[in-house]
């Protein structure tokens, strides 16, 4: 009993050192201590243990320091080969599989076109098992072990039970995917909402430090959100919090992919924009209910080039988005709203109408100091977040068990 | 440095003991230890210190135990006379002043009719100073000292800076009330949102234990909300989170007291119900823009007695409330939504339409396990919450300083 508090602080300090090395790269022991408020003696002891376990390595002492002056110090870094994780991103008509090394870097990425809406639950599990097994063989050629798998999905997930509740990429609901894959691969399998993966990457970026209550809105086929409260994703009672896309703009309004009417997504999601646009514009052929990136680029180009019909459609989407944001601001009053996702390609065409709608909807006292900014989209960001979340969870689990 | 962790745990344990005595009444030392996970030796030491400070007293050993069997144990209780706090509740056309003793009980309450909307900032400060000074004299006759004052206000407050940003009871905005009163009375003055006061009382009730993410919706002239996340009121970036009443039901819809259109409050607030009703119904004369409780009772009676116009008006309000709840559920997915406030008198006439609207708005996966229940209204609950919050804050401050 007496050593409990000490063990628990050792556990936290070890995780903090690993996390700093993962987020900031190679560092000297003394700087790791300062950054995390840990004594030098403790950092030395922790790093000795990690070195012995092969989880970190020392850089040659003559390596120039990234910045700063004075006598060069020995830097330590995470050993990339010590372990790996696999992140699988499931979105409409696409499966992406990525291998992340122990330092959190992406080492391999592959994309597969899959008619996701035609899959049965059994098809999906078989497909995941096959593709993960292939990627695992590849990954284990250059990493000592696979410590975890992350399934990052667009839609509503119950992270605690590993159940996919509902995704626009699938035509079935309530699939307990994580337990099945855990059994198959013998390692922890996390099921995460794609927006939470992205938020966990953005939250570590220096530009967004100082905003503890952060909403990340993901525009795309659907519209997702992650709410970070004091830096931690807020999941709600069953993990389905932050469903911004299905908050309401217009009761009884446009048909949404969820089956209900008037959701923000039914105006500002890719499919909603394309649905409106093809009534009045010449657009590339293809699956217009699930427009591809090329189709959406073509539509966005029209708006950017000044086509009045396209501009009106994006402005209407911006207005719905603005009313949704107004509710978010009234209820949550976040420090910062970051708008990203593939649909951020059309943000410039929506922004003015969005801001006008917020001003129309809310008195300035309720808009408050919240900043709303867009952030360029990187299609690998979801998987990078999934890698980071999985490495952190499995590090924590390993330390608790040891 | 070495003794820091020990001091901080002593501080937390002392606060826990005081809080338990305040919420649950007289208790034996051994039970205080079990309830709070503290050793008997620590409880004995803490209670010795509190006894010496005159903050607690022992009950005579022959006092029968409230429940249970076995040898009677000496119970301790908070000494009511050890300190007092004053809570001032400011709402439309009314000022309530309450004295709370150190055990958290209300010892005095007075109501004053005041034309609040006609007050200038200077009028309000002068009025508060006068009324608080009177009540303070009264309170100090039977309590050793005044440790704090709470101003509980309907509307948006920035608790950190003690600034009242905006209240439907006042015609001015942005008044730094708490600093002025702190200077005048020489004790801490807290400015709190009325819904947060009520939520802090409800959250301690056994019936609502086990719901860490709790939304309390206050129906009345306006519609307020408090969001508790892991039991702690969520304030957002500038303290204006949880403004449920100004989330949107219908873009460009009914005129709201805030100056904008289409807010949930503009359909379901007392003034909105009465505004609609007087177009078609014979109702008691009076200030129909700020209907009194008697006026609202008369309107509610009509609906309860089956008047179809009155029923339709409450059903429309219920629909707006339901769409507001749908957004709350989509964004926050709380464990429990408690509906209370004086306006809960009309809840039975709104409930069916509210539930229908939620079902119309959200797929069942997003409604999830959230329970929505109403809770009878007690007009003193705001002040009881203000007393509890102020006692807790001032206890914590005293322990930090000592």
From TrEMBL, chains A, B:
One Pfam family from the record: ROK
SUPFAM superfamilies referenced in this protein's UniProt entry, alphabetically: Actin-like ATPase domain (SSF53067), Winged helix' DNA-binding domain (SSF46785)
Stretches of the chain forming a coiled coil according to its record: none
PANTHER family found in the cross-reference section: GLUCOKINASE (PTHR18964:SF173), ROK (REPRESSOR, ORF, KINASE) FAMILY (PTHR18964)
Name of the molecule in the record: Xyl repressor
Lineage per the UniProt record: Bacteria, Pseudomonadati, Pseudomonadota, Gammaproteobacteria, Oceanospirillales
């Amino acid at each position: 009993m007496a050593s409990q508090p000490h063990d628990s602080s050792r556990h936290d300090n070890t995780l903090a050192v690993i996390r700093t090395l993962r987020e900031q790269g190679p560092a000297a022991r003394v700087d790791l201590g300062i950054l995390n408020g840990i004594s030098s003696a403790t950092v030395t002891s922790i790093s000795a243990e990690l070195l012995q376990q092969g989880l970190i390595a020392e850089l040659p002492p003559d390596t120039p320091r990234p910045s700063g002056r004075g006598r060069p110090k020995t830097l330590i870094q995470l050993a990339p080969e010590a372990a790996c994780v696999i992140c699988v991103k499931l979105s409409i008509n696409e499966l992406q599989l990525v291998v992340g090394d122990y330092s959190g870097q992406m080492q391999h990425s592959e994309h597969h076109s899959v008619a996701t809406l035609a899959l049965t639950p059994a098809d999906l599990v078989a497909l995941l098992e096959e593709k993960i097994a292939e990627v695992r063989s590849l990954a284990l050629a250059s990493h000592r072990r696979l410590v975890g798998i992350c399934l990052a999905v667009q839609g509503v997930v119950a992270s605690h039970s590993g159940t996919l509740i509902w995704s626009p990429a699938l035509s079935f609901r309530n699939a307990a995917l994580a337990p099945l894959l855990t059994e198959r691969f013998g390692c922890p399998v996390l099921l995460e909402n794609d927006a939470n993966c992205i938020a966990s990457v953005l939250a570590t970026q220096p530009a967004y430090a100082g905003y503890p209550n952060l909403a990340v809105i993901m525009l795309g086929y659907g519209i997702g959100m992650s709410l970070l409260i004091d830096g931690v994703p807020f999941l709600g009672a069953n993990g389905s919090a932050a469903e911004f896309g299905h908050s309401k703009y217009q009761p009884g309004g446009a048909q949404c992919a969820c089956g209900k009417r008037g959701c923000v997504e039914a105006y500002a999601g890719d499919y909603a924009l394309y649905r409106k646009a093809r009534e009045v514009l010449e657009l590339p052929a293809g699956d217009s209910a699930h427009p591809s990136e090329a189709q959406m680029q073509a539509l966005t180009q029209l708006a950017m080039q000044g086509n009045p019909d396209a501009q009106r459609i994006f402005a209407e989407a911006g207005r719905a988005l603005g009313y949704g944001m107004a509710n978010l601001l009234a209820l949550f009053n976040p420090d910062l709203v970051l708008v990203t996702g593939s649909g951020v390609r059309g943000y410039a065409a929506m922004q003015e109408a969005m801001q006008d709608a917020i001003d129309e909807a809310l008195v300035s006292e309720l808009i408050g100091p919240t900043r709303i900014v867009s952030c360029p989209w990187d299609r690998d960001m979801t998987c990078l977040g999934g890698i980071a979340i999985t490495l952190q969870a499995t590090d924590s689990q390993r330390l608790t068990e040891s």
